[in-house]
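One such shown below:

_____
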Amino acid sequence: MFGCLVAGRLVQTVAQQVAEDKFVFDLPDYQSINHVVVFMLGTVPFPDGMGGSVYFSYPDSSGMPVWQLLGFVTNGKPSAIFKISGLKSGEGSQHPFGAMNITRTPTVAQIGISVELLDNLAQLTPVGSAAVSSVDSFTQFTQKMLDNFYNFASSFAVSQAQMTPNPSEVFIPANVVLKWYENFQRRLTQNPLFWKT
C-alpha cells in the first residue's frame, strides 16, 4: 500500500505491518538522511474518509523511541516529501505507536504510517520543520539557475583587446549581466514571488 524513498537508497515498498492499521519502515543509518519521501503505491487506495498520518521515530540518548508527526498522505495527496534532518533533537508528540512492541536497534530510525479518519488527521499538527516548503524549493532553484546562467555567460567573456570585429555579433558587457544578476537576487530575497507582479 505504501512506499518509502531516501535519496541514494533503494525504494522500500514492503512495510512491516505492526497492527491492522499501522505500518513501519526501517531507516538504517538515519543520521545521514536529510529528506524522506512517503508515497502510496497506487495499488490499494485508502477507504473513503480515511488517510494516513506519517510519523518519524528515532532513538533518544537512552535508546527509547521519540515519535514526531511529519504530516499526511491521502488519496488526494498520495505522496509527500519530509525534511527529517532537523528533527533528531527535540521533543516527541502524541502518537499511535506507543503500545506496540516494534523491533528496533539503536542506529535505526523508523517511518510509521497510521491509517486514520480524515477528520482526525485534520486536527493533528505536524512538526513545523518537517514540511518541505515549496517557496523555499523555488527560491533554491532560482538561485541555482541564476548562478548557472552567470557562470555560463561569464565563461565567454573576452577583453576588448581579444575581440575581433564582427558586425553581425552583439556583445553585452559582463558588468551589465552582473548588475542584472545582483538585482534579481536582491528582489528574490525580499519577495520570492516578485516575478508574478
